[in-house]
Every structure is written in C-alpha cells, then in structure tokens.
Amino acid sequence: MPIRFADVGQNIYDFGDVFWVQCPRCQWRARVAAVSSANEKAPGWLFGPRRLTCKHCSLSKDCAGNGFGIGRQPEDWYFGLSLWLQTPCCGQVLWAYNERHLAFLEQYVGATLRETTLEAGNRSLASRLPRWIKSGQHREEVLAGLRRLRALLEE
Ligand SMILES: [Zn+2]
Fold first, then answer.
1. What are the beta bridge partners of residue 42?
2. Fewer CB within 10 Å of terminal CB in the chain, N or C?
3. Who's near 51: CB < 8 A, 6+ residues apart?
4. Residues flanking ion ligand 1, Cβ below 5 Å
5. Is the pTM of this model over 0.85?
6. 4 Cα distance to chain centroid
7. Domain count, the chain
8. Which domain covers residue 119, as residue numbers?
9. Ligand 1 centroid – CA 54 distance (Å)
C-alpha cells in the first residue's frame, strides 16, 4: 500500500502563524506569534502586532507587524530571527517554522504517492518545495533531517 500525500493547496501563509526562533538573548527556543489570537486567520491576519517571547530568559519583545518579509532564508517573517528548527541536510538547510509545518513536510517526504487535487493549483507549498526535497533520491536523508528537527522541537 502506498503512503499517500494529497496536495490540497496549502501555501506558505498557512504556516506563518507561529515561528520557533533562536532567542536573541539566551540562544534558547523562543516563539513569535500574533499578540492577539482573536482574529487569527481573519482577513489581514498576516499583519498586526507580533510578539517574541522566551520562556527560558523571560524576554518579551513586540513589533508592529505592519510588514513582513518571506524569504528563502530560515528566518521568521517579522523579527528576522534565525529559526530554531533548522538542520544541515543534503548540502542545504532543512527548516520548518513550527510543528504544523514540520508535520506537513514529514507527510510530504514520507509519502510514496503524491497526489495533487484541483484546489492545489500551482501556488501550493508542495509544488514549490525545492527540488532536493522533492527528489526521491534524497528521501531517506531528508527523513533523517526531519527526525532531527522533530527532536529539536521536543528538546
Ligand atoms: Zn531567551
């Protein structure tokens, strides 16, 4: 039985609600998320105040969130801090914003049969993943990288 992955058109924005980053003060794991979760996923939710919080050293820092930058760098979109979930893999850097993003990648890479649904279109995250992640040739290596990310999340 193949392990299926269905691309239902989730895009990178669907995973930008929470970012685990490296705390700029203590280098431990910190979180970047909307200050108010009340209007999460409402129109315009990508804009608005974001808060960096670290449980380890109690750092708390806000930014207006009037703009954000989505790059191909392993950084959060608001503070531009290094992601916590990143690891060298296949000569590249494998990274994820948060647990849901990691779970998405685990499902995608772990699948032996990938299906695209009509809703997916060509803007879906799955269709835009870099070739080295998509390639079956790297499957085991990428899966091992994802396990390292999972371990970082549970640290
Ligand atoms: Zn800290």
1. none
2. N
3. 32, 33, 34, 35, 60, 61, 62
4. 23, 25-26, 54, 56-57, 59
5. yes
6. 21
7. 1
8. 4-154
9. 5
